[in-house]
Every structure is written in structure tokens, then in C-alpha cells.
Write a structure and sequence with these properties.
The protein has 381 residues and is an alpha/beta fold. Helices cover 38% and strands 15% of the residues. The protein contains 14 helices and 12 strands. Strands 1-7-6-5-4-2-3 form a 7-stranded mixed β-sheet, with helices on both faces. Strands 8-9-12-11-10 form a 5-stranded mixed β-sheet. Strand 5, helix 7 and strand 6 form a beta-alpha-beta unit. Helix 12 crosses helix 14. The chain binds pyridoxal-5'-phosphate.
Length: 381
């Protein structure tokens, strides 16, 4: 089945006998046993719930995995993932990471005895140099947030295989519509479903997807024990969002290309980071492993004043955290997603007072460009 069809019919299980086209919301905490020692397959909603199961089966198919677990947030998914590792384990992670993941690793996982090295994982030899006997995994975000660096998935997967490490890929930015990390040898895919998968800025969710039975068993055990599962109603909202994933991704990308090209022509914009521009340093690597570039752009303005002017004057685009939804959002990474990253480390990556990140939504590209244009103009008066 094609991806577009899987978004709508990825799980063909019938959960009731009414013929309902939309999967029912099974708002039940628990399920009656048909007899002693018998189960309908559903016992208690922390372990499994039919609505959530429908969502999980759909996500597993979209990512080409054998199992997917749905969490209350992306961070809950990553926190559970860290429970796979015992104290003393060492993990190598992309240095330009989602701020929340960086915070979890540095302040919570570290306290639990894990150690981390952050490195530009687009540089494979630099990454390889950090491997030591205690290393257990490489955690990659590609493209990264907000600098849009791309890691060669086949190369990093090869490195992991050589050293017996797990390869974990946060696929939030591209979704399986544009990138399927399991196909390139990743062991675990992470998602903030809050972003493109849900797609409407109305629901928080997270996922872990695996292609291996043993890993699925281990993670399911932690999942059911720790309990950060997605509610039936939020599962339903995610199912509904995913039905339009393919068309949203296409159109948002189309808008992003237009906006990235326009930004490049603006005098007050110094540089534009968008993987889909052939001038992007990782355009070629991206072409090898993705079927698209997504709709996330970051750009550097000529001054802090210009950055503030844009944030204060945009009208259609909204100044808000998060990304991936139908509404275009602009953020100030320095003050928002990356506020907890030490200043020196942050600035070395180019996350400074002039950098803005734009999540391009589904509005007309012409309206988005006009909005940015008037915000740039407003600052001049
Ligand atoms: C938002 C985000 C997360 C965290 O997900 P939440 O749903 O906000 O908890 C993790 N990784 C990336 C790349 C994200 O953008």
C-alpha cells in the first residue's frame, strides 16, 4: 500500500460492529474479563486501549516498524527510552538537539548515571572518536533543530553496527512521509507527535517505533510500568491528524521552498538555513535518504533589532513555540527552545540573538510572504 493510503487505512482492524468509519474513542480505563483467566485482549488502558492501538499500528506501518508506542508527549517517549540504559552507560547525541532532549539528558538522565557527549553527528569521524567501551547508543536528530544539519543515516548506522550500538533517530521534523530511519538501519525512531503527525497545534503526543521484537518487548515493559500513555481522546485526534499527513507535508514544503527563496533575496536577512536549497551544505546527503526537505526554516537577520521587529510585527504568522501544524509559527530559539543550553555552546552553533525559526504552515505562501514583508517594513518606521 502507498503511504497516502496507509495514513488513512494503515490499521484495518475493526473495533466494533456498527460499521463506523471513524475509529471509536474507547473512553474506558478498564475492560471486563469474559471469564476467569480470559481476556478480550484489553485489560487496562495503561497497557492497551483499542483507540490507542489503532494509532500505534498506523504509526508502526508508516515508519516501516513492527511496533509503535504512543505517549502523552514527545518528552515522555524520550524519558522512557532512557530507561533502557543502565547507570554507567554512555550515549553520543547530536549537539544541535531539541532543547528539551538536551535538558532531559543533562539534568535527569545524567543524575541517573548516564553520561553524554554532544557532537555534530553530521561529521561521522568526529562522532566515531567519541565511542568508548561504555557507549551504548547514538541519538541523532536529522535535520537538527534549529540549524538544519543533516546526518548521513546509512553511515552512522554502519558505525553503530560496527560497535554494537543502538541507533536512535528523532524523526519529528521530516516524519515518515519524507524520511524512514528504520530503512537506513536505525533501531528506534522517536517522534514528538505534537508536531507534524498531529499537525493542528491542538494535541500533545509522542512515539517510539522499533523494528525488532526484543526491543519492542523491553520498551513495552517500561511503557506499561511507567504509564505515560496517550489518552483515548488524544489518540483519536492523532489518528484524525495523520489522515491528512501526506497532503499537509507536500503543501507545507511547497510553501517553505517559496519562503526560503524569498528570504534569500531580502537585504535584512543574512543567511537562510533550509535543507531544500541546493546551496545548503547537506543538500546532497539529504537527497540520498529523504524524499523531501520538510517545512522548517531558520534564518539569521542583520541585527537583534530586525529579529525583534519581525517577532513583534508578524500578524498571520504567530510568535509561539512548537512547529509542524497548519498554523505558521515563528520562534526565537535563543529565548525559547534553547534557553537552557549554555550560552557559549549555543552561540558556537549559531543560535544567537539574530536567529529566528519559522515553521511554515498551510496558509497561502503569498500571505505568509506579505506578512514577513510588512513585519520587516514596520521595523523601519
Ligand atoms: C517538540 C519536540 C520534542 C518534544 O516533544 P513534546 O511533544 O513537546 O514533548 C522532541 N524532539 C523534537 C525534535 C521536537 O521538536
Amino acid at each position: 500500500m502507498e503511504f497516502d493510503t496507509l495514513c488513512i487505512h494503515g490499521n484495518d482492524t475493526r473495533y466494533d460492529s456498527t460499521g463506523a468509519i471513524s475509529v471509536p474513542i474507547f473512553q474506558s480505563a478498564t475492560f471486563a474479563h469474559p471469564g476467569v483467566g480470559l481476556s478480550t485482549g484489553y485489560d487496562y488502558s495503561r497497557l492497551q486501549n483499542p483507540t490507542r492501538e489503532h494509532l500505534e499500528k498506523t504509526i508502526a506501518k508508516l515508519e516501516n516498524g513492527i511496533d509503535a508506542m504512543a505517549f502523552s508527549t514527545g518528552m515522555a517517549a524520550i524519558a522512557v527510552l532512557m530507561e533502557l540504559f543502565c547507570p554507567g552507560s554512555h550515549i553520543i547525541a547530536s549537539d544541535d538537539l531539541y532543547g528539551g532532549s538536551h535538558r532531559l539528558f543533562s539534568h535527569i538522565s545524567a543524575k541517573n548515571g548516564l553520561s553524554f557527549d554532544f557532537v555534530d553527528t553530521s561529521d561521522i569521524s568526529k562522532t566515531a572518536e567519541l565511542i568508548k567501551p561504555e557507549t551504548k547508543a547514538i541519538f541523532v536528530e536529522t535535520p537538527t533543530n534549529p540549524m538544519m544539519q543533516v546526518t548521513d543515516l546509512a553511515a552512522v548506522s554502519e558505525l553503530c553496527k560496527q560497535h554494537g550500538l543502538l541507533l536512535i533517530v528523532d524523526n519529528t521534523f521530516l516524519t515518515p512521509y519524507f524520511q524512514k530511519p528504520l530503512n537506513f538501519g536505525a533501531d528506534i525512531v522517536v517522534h514528538s507527535g505534537t508536531k507534524y503527525l498531529g499537525g493542528h497545534n491542538d494535541t500533545l503526543a509522542g512515539f517510539l517505533v522499533v523494528s525488532d521484537e526484543a526491543l519492542s518487548e523491553k520498551l513495552r515493559f517500561i511503557y506499561k510500568t511507567t504509564g505515560a500513555c496517550l489518552s483515548p481522546f488524544d489518540s483519536w485526534l492523532m489518528i484524525r491528524g495523520i489522515k491528512t499527513l501526506a497532503v499537509r507535508m507536500e503543501r507545507q514544503q511547497e510553501n517553505a521552498v517559496k519562503i526560503a527563496q524569498w528570504l534569500r533575496t531580502q537585504k535584512k536577512i543574512r543567511s537562510v538555513h533550509y535543507v531544500g536549497l541546493p546551496a545548503h551544505p547537506h543538500y546532497e546527503v539529504s537527497m540520498k535518504q529523504t524524499t523531501g526537505f520538510g517545512a522548517m526554516i531558520s534564518f539569521e537577520t542583520d541585527s537583534e533589532r530586525t529579529a525583534l521587529d519581525i517577532l513583534e510585527h508578524v500578524k498571520v504568522i504567530q510568535y509561539a513555540e512548537s512547529l509542524g501544524g497548519v498554523e505558521s509559527l515563528i520562534t526565537y530559539p535563543m529565548l525559547q527552545t534553547h534557553a537552557d543550553i549554555p550560552k557559549q555552546e549555543r552561540e558556537a552553533k549559531g543560535i544567537n540573538e539574530r536567529l529566528l525559526r519559522l515553521s511554515v504552515g498551510l496558509e497561502a505562501a503569498s500571505d505568509l510572504i506579505a506578512d514577513l514583508e510588512q513585519a520587516l517594513e514596520a521595523g523601519r518606521t
